[in-house]
Amino acid sequence: MRFPAPLKAGDRIGVTSPSSGVDADLLPRLEFAVEVVETRGYEVVVGECMDGAGHISAPAADRARELTAMLTDPDIRAVVPPWGGELAIDLLPLLDWDAIRDAEPTWVVGFSDMSTIITPLTLLTGVATIHGNNLMDTPYVTPKGLLSWLDIAALPTGSTFTQSSPGVHRSSGFDDYRDHPDAYEFTLDRDGRWIRLDGDGDVDVSGRLIGGCVEALCNLMGTRFGDTAAIPGDQLIYLEASGDDAATICRNLHGMRLAGFFDRAAAVLIGRTRAPGIASLSQYDAVVDALGCLGVPLVADVECGHVPPFLPLVNGALGRVVHNATESTVIQTLD
Length: 335
What we know:
Strand content: 15-25%
CATH topology of the largest domain: Glucose Oxidase, domain 1
Number of helices: 8
CATH superfamily of the largest domain: LD-carboxypeptidase A C-terminal domain-like
CATH architecture of the largest domain: 3-Layer(bba) Sandwich
Strand order of the largest sheet: 6-16-15-10-11-12-13-9
Structural class: alpha/beta
């Protein structure tokens, strides 16, 4: 596994939209987020593929060209999108994978539809990526126990860091960036800790981290872009549901299991979600129905999904998950 060089003051960070762009009335939030990154001492370069008038920021060829250019530019040390979207998958056959693999590794950050990009990047190139807050989420103050992707990307290779569940999350809704473009404090109004879905007992398990958004990754099964066999040894697989109902998620997880996605799983972490159940199947039930047969710990309500706050996970990092009556932590080593 290869890890990009740590970010340092003066480094350049690229912003592009591999999926959805930014509406004109949300540009003040984008500008505020860029300013927050610049206050860390970085130079921010905003690309041309940023149009938010439609469901994609630019034609697929243009988006692929811009992302490839940023990932092969030695002066750009990290790439972050404003947010996810719907159709990042159309970039996969258009990216210059050989050029990206041969280039100096660059940090790529994001979640949601960006899983369609960052997870294949790790699987196909052996370069670590960060499943963490997108640019529009970056201004939020990080709760105690968690780190921002900017903190992680500044760590040298070989570093070990620990994140712990803050025990609180946002119960509903999101900040309206049109009315509050400078929002920087999460509304964390509900208590909640991780839970084990497959039974009782403490969890202490290790492996390399890999995962992302279920609705994005399920479409990569049976292709080289979703082949977890590229990562040797035990794996800590993390997944999160964006919004699909429990029956759809259950079906997707079954398909991913049948495709071999979980063949090396030592545990599965499930992100906290507000996605609905159906009358006879909850989101928890969906996970157990599809993955209970794996015989590994299934730990749910981890802060790695669409419900704030965010616990960034590094695809490709060595991870250790500890969950018991007094502790819920993820320890990651960039090695």
